Amino acid sequence: MSATTINFVRHGKVYNPNHVLYERLPGFHLSTSGRRMAETTGRYIAESPQLNTATAVYSSPLDRTRETADAILIELNALRAERGQEQLKLLTDKRLIEAGNDFRGKRIGHGDGALWRPENLRLVRNLWRPTWGESYRSIANRVQDFALEKVDEHPGEQIVVVSHESPIWSYRHMLETGHPEHNMLLRKTALASVTSITYDNETHEVLGITYADPVAQAEAAAHNRPRQ
Q1: How many angstroms separate the Cα of 22 from the Cα of each of 29, 58, 101, 104, 137?
Q2: pLDDT above 70 as % of the chain
Q3: CA 199, CA 128: separation in Å to the nearest integer?
Q4: Which one, of 76, 68, 66, 14, lies nearest residue 44 by Cα?
């Protein structure tokens, strides 16, 4: 049986000193710690006997996802060079972009954040729809459209896909529960984490879903390392 695994990676931490909801706005790049996160996940992927066989790397077109993907490509391509394999290039796809949000560009949850202003209460009247922007179903459907297309294009292969928290979790939640609607406070999609979904190439059936947090693993290993 042939199977394809799509490894969905959330981008690293973004430099955002003004605490605005950056959504799809340009000019929001990884912070110094965010770059380290991306590098850590890149090493995790390159050191995995399964993941380092990836034949393609895709990302959302936004700055933070492209930068995270670039860090992963550096690690993968170094390994591919040792193997005498062709270098991978980043491919972008708009279906992986962050969810649309009517709070874009506004401060959320800090001091006089937009979330608490009376004129914005209409945007948060339904947390399940949600009423502040693109629906979870719309998000999950576009990610699924991308995923099934790539399963057909990459039979029996591993690929890496860098996206955002809401697209990754909405899609995973739909696969696991039958509906994409969820409590956004209960997401399990840490920065620079890897959600791996394996599909049967013939039927598109999901064979398994696994989750890894390379940054947390690296921090735990560093903490437990004996001091010299």
Answers
A1: 10, 21, 9, 6, 21
A2: 85
A3: 28
A4: 76
Whole-model pTM: value is 0.88
Question: How large a percentage of the chain has pLDDT more than 90?
Answer: 72
Greatest Cα-to-Cα distance within the chain, rounded to the nearest angstrom: 60
Quote the CA–CA distance of 161 and 57 in Å, as a whole number: 6
Question: In degrees, to the nearest 5, what angle opens at C-alpha 154 toward C-alphas 151 and 160?
Answer: 80
Q: How far apart are CA 32 and CA 13, in angstroms?
A: 8
CB count, 10 Å around CB of 159? 23
Q: Which tokens hold the place of 220?
A: 């735990």
**Antiparallel, parallel or unpaired: β 194-200 and 158-163:** unpaired
Length of the chain, please? Answer: 228
Question: Are 109 and 117 in contact, with CB atoms under 8 Å apart?
Answer: no
d(CA 212, CA 197): 12
Give the span between the Cα atoms of 61 and 59, in whole angstroms: 6
Place of tokens 């009376």: 118
pLDDT tens column, 136-165: 999 999 999 999 999 999 999 999 999 999
